[in-house]
Design a protein that fits this description.
single chain, 217 residues, mainly beta, Jelly Rolls, 4-stranded antiparallel β-sheet, 2 helices, 13 strands, binds N-[(3-hydroxypyridin-2-yl)carbonyl]glycine, binds fe (iii) ion, metal-binding
């Protein structure tokens, strides 16, 4: 038992928790790498700034997003897709930093998915009140590759459902340094993030940052 106040200063001992068939939580797996990951996020957002994408239905997303890697996930009136260049600048997305690539491959390996080589990393920023409604990640070409999702900063309540939007959802707390690896029979499970509660994180202040690594093409 630890007190919430100390969660991010005294991380849990790293361990694996099953989430569903094909999905595991690697508690504290990214805790040691977190400062380097956050420095890299600052470099990425200096060239590909945070933006609020609009869904094909015309809704402004409350999550602010950017990308790094060979492909970036974007949404606009034309739909959801991966693009090799940032539509804001016309330039390629920032390269995937070496600490990102290494962490994603090691986490996938630890979850039983050897050889994961992400070509896309969606970077998400949550502020208090930001939420992500239930969705499937289905814009990737090869659904055999897992997704590796890294949580940094303020804790969030992750909603994890089934293959139908109406299936009941489990609520899972994801704290700074936790990594979710997600593939196989869970690859198309519906999931989302409940509105972020305010807090003050020693490294991230009032933010939660999520890195979602994919094999897009
Ligand atoms: C987030 N994550 O945690 C949003 N998608 O901020 C996702 O949408 C997600 O964590 C697919 C697999 C894992 C994820
Ligand atoms: Fe997702």
């Amino acid at each position: 038992m630890t007190f919430d106040l100390f969660d991010d200063l005294l991380p849990e001992t790293p361990h694996t928790e099953p989430l569903a068939a094909g999905a595991v939580i690697l508690r504290a797996f990214a805790h040691a790498a977190a400062p380097a990951l956050l420095e890299a996020v600052a470099r990425i957002t200096a060239s590909a700034p945070w933006r609020h994408l609009v869904t094909p239905g015309g809704q402004r997303m409350s999550v602010a997003m950017t990308n790094c890697g060979s492909f970036g996930w974007v949404s606009d009136a034309r739909g959801y897709r991966y693009e090799p260049a940032d539509p804001l600048s016309g330039q390629p997305w920032p390269a995937m930093p070496e600490p990102f690539r290494t962490l994603a491959a090691e986490a996938a390996q630890a979850a039983g998915f050897a050889g994961f080589a992400p070509d896309a990393c969606l970077v998400n920023r949550y502020l208090p009140g930001t939420r992500l409604s239930l969705h499937q990640d289905r814009d990737e070409r090869d659904l055999r590759a897992p997704i590796v999702s890294v949580s940094l900063g303020l804790p969030a309540t992750f909603l994890f459902g089934g293959l139908q939007r109406t299936d009941r959802t489990a609520r899972v707390r994801l704290a700074h340094g936790d990594v979710v690896v997600w593939g196989g029979p869970s690859r198309l499970a519906y999931h989302g993030v409940a509105p972020l509660a305010d807090g003050d994180h020693p490294l991230c202040g009032h933010e939660r940052i999520n890195l979602t690594f994919r094999r897009a093409r």
